[in-house]
Amino acid sequence: MDIRSLRYFVAVTDFHNVSRAAEHLHISQPALSQAMKGLEQEIGQPIFRRVMGGVELTDVGKRLRYHALRILHAVDDAEEELGTRTRLDTELNIGVLPTLAEDYVPVILRAFQETTADAPMVGLREAHTEGLVKEVLSGALHLAVLDLPVSEPQLAVEKLWQERLVIVSPPSSDLRGRVPWTALQKVPWITLEPGYGLRDVLFRMSLAHGFQPQIVFELTSAHALLGMVRAGFGSALVPYRWIQLEILHGRLRMAIPDPLPTRDIGVVWRRQRRLSVWARAFRDFLLTAGPSIVEQAEPVTSD
């Protein structure tokens, strides 16, 4: 039983699928399948069972994963101390919400690279919160910046900052100033598709005040959402930072719902798998730099 076989084994358990694990490891699927077959022969018992869409661990496989992680963590510690990191340890794969990919995250990432010697190659993946959680769990991403709360026991979670949300409407709308949620029952809403935290906040606040929001469009991008609002199809609940220029130039109208809703932004990573040195460095930089960047945002005021 060698280290390479254990790394291959853990990758298969992360992805629950041999093909996806092989792609992640940059090896052929037949080679990975053969390595797993050899590991089972060495142990003398099945470690996987086939299920719809992939594989799952047997009881023996679960025990092997526990010991494999302990061994690999010890090897990682030794490589880090001795300075013998592999190519994969020079990579940093980050997941981010599309609603954060235009401003906050690029600024933080640039600051990280400018203040870090020998900064790693960075892979950036955009997806909604549910998709990012799955990719962190699979091992495809080292960590992800997304909406909270995240109720996945296999993930460690740290809050980064909190965003205030406002209502944005076309210029012809009567919604302005402070508006109680009870006055929003007949508003046609444009929101993001299921899986995005902004949609969850809209439903949570509406249901808490006794009504179901009337959704006219569910979209996948902030640009499309604001475009539909400008065209007069309805209103949307969005972060204030999205619309400052739109309000300034009179293209949209803003109202402040009462009480003012917020969404929490956080970073997540897997509990059972030790972060690489670069992933730890970027996580720590996020926790330090993230809140200070958000503090530079202008205060929320009604138009």
Q: How many angstroms does the end-to-end distance come to?
A: 67 Å
What is the level-2 CATH architecture name of the largest domain?
3-Layer(aba) Sandwich
* Mean pLDDT score: 86
Please name the fourth-level CATH homologous superfamily of the largest domain. Answer: Periplasmic binding protein-like II
Q: What is the string of helix and strand elements?
A: HHHEEHEHEHEEEEHEHEHEEH
Biggest β-sheet strands, sense, barrel: 8 strands, mixed
Number of helices: 10
CATH topology of the largest domain: D-Maltodextrin-Binding Protein, domain 2
Strand percentage lies at 15-25%
CA-based shape? elongated
Secondary structural class: alpha/beta
Give the proportion of residues in helices.
40-55%
Per CATH, the class of the largest domain reads Alpha Beta
* E-strand count: 12
Uncertain spans? 298-303
- Total domains: 3
Family: Belongs to the LysR transcriptional regulatory family.
Domain HTH lysR-type: 1-58
Protein name: Transcriptional regulator, LysR family
GO molecular function: DNA binding; DNA-binding transcription factor activity
